[in-house]
Design goal:
Chain lengths: 348, 325
């Protein structure tokens, strides 16, 4: 008990130091850009929370960050890296927009929206399962396979946008899906809608699944001790496929929500790297599903706050990437967050 | 047509070649540097600034070397000394460099007419007269020749020198290397710094052999392609050249097909998928395409062994015994 209190105290101290260090370092970057750091941080705060619309925007960005964090966290608990949340999200988005565009015009909006979401989840899960099958069947390293599959999915999105869905009007996007296909808006004046509720539901069910079900137990067991779980009769390969498929499903949901609920089309660059940021969110949250939500919200605030920087202080939005990266790197360097060690990339 | 494809293909594969050289060495020493894309961005940005301020492609190329070493020291501190997770650190480092170069570019470099002093092709007498391969291989800029020279040298470095042997030992079995007296952290740190220098040269190559200027996100995923090339080349610097050529040539073929006006039946975007699909295929199909066994795991220096500072000085002491003993 005493030991865990010390660890907690050391960890909180690490978080405090890391926050101060990253504020100082990013402050220096702002000074180098000729910007008052206080004004810059104030602009980010204002941009993330300053009005109903901005707070709503932050909530909307929280959803894909939380879902892709889940996509990383669940395979992690099963002892697998999923660096491919980005690609699984694109797979979900591609599938959702294909369904929404391909449905015959007689079908009612809610039916189309629901099927687009479901197919999006299935596509994300399938994209994750490919890596799982290669891992279980051929021992192919999942870090490299999920990473490469991400670029394949993004490339397929490009291919479809430039080659199949041409003449969309706006360059770099698919055609717009029918206007009656969408997710109900829940907070007028902001983009917050049913998608955010779906995100919360998904995270809660993931938490319940991991803690309370046989499947969740199996996933945690192969993560903690593959040998013990083999003796207990779990099929490791099958659980590895499930872990990546379930993770991919959540990322796919994020992509489908973006298409159906937010943009109403597939934009080539709809993601500023949510899938990769999700990995950081998952680690900061210590892989606990319920902590993912607040961490994703704070991370989203940094991202959305950055959109205010060009307006207020005249520097690029990308400065918020610097703030995020420095913060998480400081947390890592000071030991405030720790990635679980999953062993080597190579044969063991 | 064929000649044009060969010539531009070699030019396009060049940045990937240098980045892959670096990544191959780093991974053999047991550090997976997913941040290679960010290192390339840093090198490209730095050399573009030098090119604009001082002019001259040579100076711009040289500038990328200390810059790469500095970036390597930062990454080495994370990967080797702090022992932070290599995958997460690398991903965030890429975000950091993308953000930094973008804000600096938008603040200081946009709207200014940039000099385009790039390396011109230098024809090697006689050899460049060979039909087809002559212009492609022997009438190129000097960095092509440097890369051709570097491949066997790096191969020998990894197979025949104390550095290469120690690096491969700490990459495969860090415990075994440690008990036989090799300072794991020192060798890994040196490997990361050296790898970042090579990758930074790759980034600079994008500037000094192509457009002569920086653009936002100029690396456009070439660092990730380098990660793929390294697997295809099985961590062998000599095989990096043909592995990278596959990607350079397909890209060049596409550009040529477009400009020559005959619409290829396979769209450009499909060809862009090739490196990623090929890597997956190789990793899945080949048991020999396995990462070095210690790659990706931090090896903490055991207490009571030689101190960390001593370990870090060890590579320097080997190079210049008089100064560091």
């Amino acid at each position: 008990m005493a030991r865990s209190v010390t660890t907690n105290r050391r960890q909180s101290l690490g978080v405090l130091l890391a926050t101060l260090a990253s504020a100082a370092l990013t402050g220096l970057v702002f000074v180098a850009l000729g910007v008052n750091p206080i004004a810059a941080f104030a602009a980010m705060l204002e941009g993330a929370f300053g009005s109903d619309f901005r707070l709503g925007q932050t909530l909307v960005v929280t959803t894909p960050l939380a879902l892709t964090a889940l996509a990383a966290a669940i395979p992690f608990r099963a002892g697998l890296w999923n660096v491919g949340g980005e690609g699984q999200m694109y797979a979900g988005a591609i599938a959702a927009v294909s369904v929404a565009l391909g449905m015959p015009s007689g079908v009612s909006g809610p039916v189309v929206a629901t099927s687009a979401l479901v197919i999006g989840v299935v596509a994300g899960a399938g994209w994750g399962a490919i890596a799982g099958l290669f891992k279980a069947g051929f021992g192919a390293n999942e870090v490299i396979v999920t990473l490469m599959l991400s670029f394949v999915a993004i490339g397929i999105a490009q291919l479809l946008i430039n080659g199949v869905w041409t003449g969309a009007g706006i360059s770099g996007t698919s055609p717009t899906i029918p206007t009656d296909v969408g997710l109900m808006n829940l907070w007028p004046g902001t983009p917050v809608g049913l998608g955010e509720v779906l995100g919360v539901v998904a995270i809660t069910s993931a938490a319940i699944m991991m803690a309370r079900t046989r499947l969740g137990f199996g996933l945690r067991t192969i993560g903690m001790s593959p040998d013990a779980s083999r003796l207990a009769g779990f099929s490791i390969g099958r659980l590895q496929v499930y872990a990546l498929a379930i993770g991919g499903g959540f990322a796919g949901l994020a992509g489908a929500i973006n298409v159906v609920g937010i943009n109403g089309l597939l934009a080539r660059d709809f993601s500023p790297g949510y899938g990769f940021m999700g990995i950081a969110v998952a680690l900061i949250a210590g892989l606990r599903p319920l902590l993912i939500l607040p961490v994703a919200f704070l991370y989203a605030a940094l991202l959305v706050g950055g959109y205010n920087l060009p307006v207020e202080v005249g520097i690029s939005t990308s400065a918020s990437l610097v703030v995020q990266a420095v913060l998480v790197l400081s947390l890592l360097a000071l030991g405030a967050i720790r990635a679980p060690s999953l062993g080597a990339l190579g044969r063991s | 047509m064929t000649e044009a494809i060969l010539v531009s293909g070699i030019l396009l594969m060049l940045p990937i070649v240098w980045a892959s050289f670096g990544e191959a060495i780093c991974e053999q020493a047991g550090v997976l540097n997913i941040g290679v894309e960010g290192v390339m961005l840093a090198g490209a940005f730095g050399s573009a600034v030098v090119l604009r301020e001082f002019g001259g492609p040579w100076l711009a190329l040289w500038a990328s070397i200390p810059l790469g070493a500095a970036v390597g020291c930062v990454l080495g501190w994370f990967y080797v000394i702090r022992g932070t997770d290599q995958i997460v650190t690398g991903i965030l480092f890429n975000f950091l460099m993308l953000g930094l170069t973008t804000v600096l570019y938008e603040k200081y470099l946009t709207g200014v007419a940039q000099s385009a002093g790039v390396f011109d092709p230098v024809a090697i007498p006689l050899l460049s007269d060979i039909p087809l391969i002559g212009p492609a291989l022997f009438d190129q800029n000097v960095i092509v020749y440097l890369a051709t020279l570097a491949a066997p040298l790096l191969f020998l470095l990894m197979r025949r020198t104390w550095f290469g042997l120690h690096a491969r030992a700490v990459g495969e079995r860090p415990e075994a290397a440690d008990v036989s007296g090799v300072g794991v952290s020192g060798v890994r740190f040196a490997a990361v710094v050296f790898a970042c220098v090579l990758s930074s040269i790759g980034g600079a190559t994008l500037v000094v052999t192509q457009s002569g200027q920086f653009t936002i996100g100029i690396t456009s995923g070439q660092g990730f392609i380098a990660l793929a090339v390294v697997v295809l080349a099985r961590w062998n610097p000599l095989l990096v050249l043909p592995a990278a050529a596959v990607f350079g040539m397909t890209q060049a073929f596409q550009f040529q097909a477009q400009s020559a006006g005959f619409a290829s039946s396979v769209p450009f975007e499909a060809w862009a998928l090739l490196p990623y699909v090929a890597t997956i295929a190789v990793v899945v199909a080949s048991k020999r395409a396995q990462y070095p066994a210690g790659c990706g795991i931090h090896y903490p220096s055991p207490a009571g062994h030689r101190g960390l500072t001593q370990q870090l000085l060890e590579p320097l002491r080997r190079v210049a015994p008089a100064r560091f003993s």
